[in-house]
Structures are given as structure tokens and as C-alpha cells.
Amino acid sequence: MRTHTTHLPGVLIIEPRVFNDERGFFKESFNAARYQAVAGIESAFVQDNQSYSKGSVLRGLHFQRTKPQGKLISVTRGAIFDVVVDINPGSSTFGQYVGLELSQDNHKQLWVAPGYAHGFCVLSDKADINYKCTDYYQPDDEGGLAWDCPRLAINWPIQNPVLSAKDRSHPGLEQFLLP
Fold first, then answer.
1. What is the pLDDT of residues 164-179, one digit of tens each?
2. Exposure class string for 83-100: b at 16+ Cβ within 10 A, else e
3. What is the CA radius of gyration of the chain?
4. pLDDT by residue (tens digit) across 62-104?
């Protein structure tokens, strides 16, 4: 397995070792000891989530306000453009983002340390996304950030995304600058 740091502290791109042959492939998608030794991920995962989305769906940008979740994200079918945004006003990378393609073909995973906003858009006709989370989802603690916030200037690779009503109504980055 290989890891690549990003310019956001605690956000890593992970490339598991994949064994391919004429039958298909095998990969170890998580091993606590290896992920701790190689990637420094020491958090225990307490919840696994799976998401299915159709093409051009955009989900996000989501976060937990007081009980942030670390997430290990992977795609088992299709392809997504995954985005992580630094929402900590005290951080030197506040308002910056990392965006990359995760797919069934590239096998990449994204480790998102607790405290970031996260979202994705579907690049394929459909996609299955898996999240390993370090804390439980708390509906009354969730927050959102506008996917199209001009201060973020995210270069989403789809036109006219399909959004939930909730994701259409999130405020911009300025919500983190208010007292």
C-alpha cells in the first residue's frame, strides 16, 4: 500500500495493493495494523456506511459540528469526484480543498481526518461508495457547506448536478467566520 499526503493536514490518498489476474482482482481494503503503521490512521472505526448514487448526483458538502467523523472513503462501483474542504477558520488552509477521482478502476481511497467538510459527485452512470467512520452519525449535529460557494471555487467536473433540497440550501464559507 502507498500513501500520498495532500496540502490539507490529515487528508491522505491511499493506494491499496491490488492483485490482478485473469479471474479479476483481490485487494485488502482495510487492515488496522497496516493502516496505522503506513498511513498513521490510529482511529477506531465505529460505523460503516454505503451510499448508492445515480449519475450526476452531488452529495455534500457535509460535516458534523461537535462530533466530527474521520472517514476512509472508497468506491466499489463506478467513479466519483471526491472533495474535502478545510472548514477550520484557525487553519492555514482554511477554505482550501482537495478534489480527486475515486473509482472501481483506480482503487484509490481517501482518508479524511475529523473536522473537514466532505462531498462528492458521481462521474459514472451509478456509483457505490463505502465510508468507514470514526464516530457515529448524529443527525442533530450535522452541518453543510454550499457545494457552489464562490469562495471555494471548486472545479466540479459535472454540469447541472442533481441535488437534494437540503444540499441546495447550505450556507457558504462565511458561516465559519461569524462569532
1. 999 999 999 999 987 7
2. bbbbbeeeeebebebbbe
3. 16
4. 999 999 999 999 999 999 999 999 999 999 999 999 999 999 9
CA distance 102 to 123: 10
Q: How far apart are the first and last CA of the chain?
A: 43
For residue 12, give the CATH number of its domain.
2.60.120.10
Q: Which of 62, 107, 118, 170 is catalytic?
A: 62
Helix, strand and coil in the chain, % to nearest 5: 10, 45, 45
Cα–Cα dist 14/111, whole Å = 7
136 is known as an active-site residue:
no
How does 126-159 read in b/e, with b if 16+ C-beta sit within 10 Å?
ebebbbbbbbeeeeeeebbbbbebeebebeeeee
Q: Is 131 a catalytic residue?
A: yes
This prediction's pTM: 0.94
Give the active site residue among 35, 118, 131, 170: 131
Q: How many domains does the chain have?
A: 1
The C-alpha cell that represents 80 in the structure block: 466519483
Q: Which domain holds residue 123?
A: 2-176
CB-count burial class (<10 Å; 0-12, 13-18, 19+) for 161: middle
